């Protein structure tokens, strides 16, 4: 297990607990009471830390190297029923954007999401989860296929942003994202969106229009990352914690602003501490959302989606 800077007190107690258990195994000394005391202190420390996380600490948790990525969620949700589909039928297959058909609880879904890598080699292969225009065009192709066969769409968001390279701009990055938003707004099938990690900028919005939009507890969703915001406002990354607070990017903030519909709870410490519980919670919320949408007629579905997004940003003086 890798630890973040604010998790170091937990690491120290876990190391103490391991040593205590080793002493008990290698000697005749009874260390039961000592181990229990350490376990109790460990549990109290975890609760104290994770119940009072700052916005920046939640950003750090969303990027935790042990956190489950999109393909981990797909395998857990669909098992061996997932069939990956490739290519945008125009340029090439974008490895940062994955998609295909799979069954969740017996119901077929078209699943689309950004995939990061697990190590240096796979991060380069997946372009760090930053999709090019062909990735968004592939996503749209799959969503249009789902519409044709009346299959609900599930999008899983985890990206530091769309790829900002010159070649991406040359191939129409902005247009591809805008086209996806436009087409998703009027797609004739239910769309469920879950932010499972980072939800940054237009890269997230390109597959982020949904009838039900949910965030896992320790994720973030914003127009810009705290580091980039800090570099623009203060010409330095040193103020990223201050920027994270000001951006109101946590799941609690987004729910309060009515920009997302639900917060999916995570195990104490984050999804990486207990993956099975995290996967179970995501599945439960996805199926609950689908059951709320499945009986709506196509005109009702589109009208409610349009109404939902039209109301965003309204305020009263």
**What's the N-to-C terminus distance?**
49 Å
- From the helix content, strand content and strand pairing, which structural class follows? alpha/beta
Number of helices: 14
Mean pLDDT: 93
Q: Strand-residue fraction?
A: 5-15%
Biggest β-sheet, characterized? Answer: 8 strands, mixed
Structure in words:
With 317 residues, the protein is an alpha/beta fold. Helices cover 49% and strands 15% of the residues. It is built from 14 helices and 8 strands. The protein has helices at residues 8-26, 32-50, 55-62, 70-78, 120-125, 133-148, 166-170, 173-185, 201-205, 226-234, 240-247, 251-256, 275-293, 298-310, and strands at residues 83-84, 97-104, 107-114, 153-159, 191-200, 212-216, 220-222, 262-264. Strands 1, 2, 3, 4, 5, 6, 7 and 8 form an 8-stranded mixed beta sheet that branches. A hairpin with a 2-residue loop joins strand 2 (97-104) and strand 3 (107-114). Helix 3 (55-62) crosses helix 11 (240-247).
